[in-house]
Amino acid sequence: MSSDEGTVRVDSWIWSVRLMKTRSMASTACRAGHVRVNGNRVKPAHAVRPGDEVRLRHAGRERIVVVSRLISKRVAAPVAAECYVDNSPPPPPREERVLVAVRDPGMGRPSKRDRRELARLRELDRLHGVAPLHDLEAALRRPARDEDDGEDGGPRTG
Fold it and tell me: Is the pTM of the predicted complex or chain greater than 0.85?
């Protein structure tokens, strides 16, 4: 499925080699400035040639590929992998991903204090990327309380 002419549209090529799921997603990424060819932001209709370096930001990581063969129609994954040389940095290991705060089963609804603690952890996560592990463990392991202990401003009234 090699193209007869010497160029192919960048959005079509990105879709054809399976870097994006749909051609419209590839076009949208080009319009948003997430696609660069040889260091320059490009529009969806930009022509790519063999030897061009295509940089694509998608799903939280940057893909860096060098065009080795032009195709304009989507092909099987093994054939598509032969159409480019992947110079992308490896994805981050799974251990470095952000931990999600999950409460133990049977702990019931979080108290006001628990909700404040979780909100503080989310704020830390937003500012620093990862919440300190000891704070996260403390928030998850806190036992459920049966009654209000007056910390929130006094006993509850019906």
Answer: no
